[in-house]
Amino acid sequence: MLIRPRLNDFHDLAFTQQDVDFAIPFLNEDIPLYLDPFLLWKSPSMQDNSLHTAISNSFNHIGYLLKKGQENEALTILKTSSECAEVGMGSSSKRRGVRISEKTALSISYLFSNVPQISKNGFTHFEEIQLYIDQISKDRVSDIACNFLKSFLIDYTIQQSDRHRIPLEKVEINNLYDYKKNQFVVENTYLPVNPETKQPILVVPKRWLRYIPWINYEDYFDGYFVKEILYEQGNIPTRVEILEFNRKNYDVVQNYVKQKEKTLEDCKNDPLFKQIPIISAKRKLDSIIKLPSGKTDNADKKYEDSVCQLMASALYPYLDFAETQSRTDSGTQIRDLIFYNNRSYDFLKDIYDDYQTRQIVMELKNVAKVERDHVNQLNRYLSESFGRFGILITRNPLPKPIFKNTIDLWAGQRKCIIALTDEDLKLMTSVYESKQRHPIEVIKKKYLEFKRSCPS
What we know:
Blueprint: H1 7-10, E1 34-35, H2 37-42, H3 46-67, H4 71-81, H5 102-114, H6 116-121, H7 138-148, H8 150-164, E2 169-178, E3 183-191, E4 209-210, H9 217-229, H10 239-248, H11 250-262, H12 278-290, H13 299-314, E5 320-327, E6 334-340, H14 346-355, E7 359-365, H15 372-381, E8 389-394, H16 400-413, E9 416-420, H17 422-434, H18 440-453
Parallel strand pairs: 7-8, 8-9
Antiparallel strand pairs: 1-4, 2-3, 5-6, 6-7
Helix pairs in contact: 3-4, 4-5, 12-13, 12-17
């Protein structure tokens, strides 16, 4: 079974996260990013600006319904729009969330009825509700925006699926917001699906994603309220007290929003993975080299942490990092590093073809001398799920009897285990710094050396 499988992994599609315009969905958990409507508002794209207007108009229609006395319909739209399982964004480990409660929906409706400026003009940035209502944060902002954009996201997902050959199946979308009717409708269409649950999957452009919305409560409190308002208040009020203050002082919130609009150039999308800078890579390498082998003073844990950060950055974008310290089902064994193999480099395609390697396992051993048990442990991981290629990252070259053991494994079971040492990490860091070649070539070099030692 693959670790943290993604949509492309299940369908055996050879593209990396860098290759595509969208965030590749996980099948069993959420992507830890959120759609930020502010990125659509600040975008130079007329399409993005129009979509932002559509979000705002759809949300403000709730206020229109309330004025017409259609409270039940308004609350239904609020609750329905508050969870968008198809996009799988947030912190859920099961791609499932819950809608807002009736109480929270009523609190939002209160804004349209009791804050005169909102009642009259509605919202330009509906994510301001985080500054007025408790229990509303980045996940709700993202889900509401995604629901109001679902029609566009369906078309976008179909387009990207055609481009990257992602299989589609006929599905029923129960809560599709119809912008003309201003209500949720049911529609049948074709989309990628989760192979286990058969639930439809929508993909979202990377350019719209951030870890935290540009307008958010924490930034408002730390960057504006404390500096501009709190000095007049004395004691620090609670969050609930601040939200109540905001509802009674609309202009205070608007001044904060205007400040955020003025600094829009600083608002950028967040990448799903960010490489550490060259100077940080060199520091990681330096700390690795200085560490003693063994477990003294937690040296093994420090070794694992530094190697993990160094390797994840050095091998990007050819290898997308999957997970660190992933326990087996029994909880008794640990696979130190797991990378997705999307065949984005000739060597990676070779090991995929020769060893059926869909994910690359890297076992970290902070020991002075690798022993047979270490090799056997990695060998046990090289199963049908991962393929028959693995890497031992350790301090020194393998002793001759242990190296012969790896040759025997190749000869007898066609399993390939190569070792990277401190010297190899030095070379990878040097290549990473120079940018003349790519660090993955160091692994390719070690593999070719290994193959030359194998019997023909």
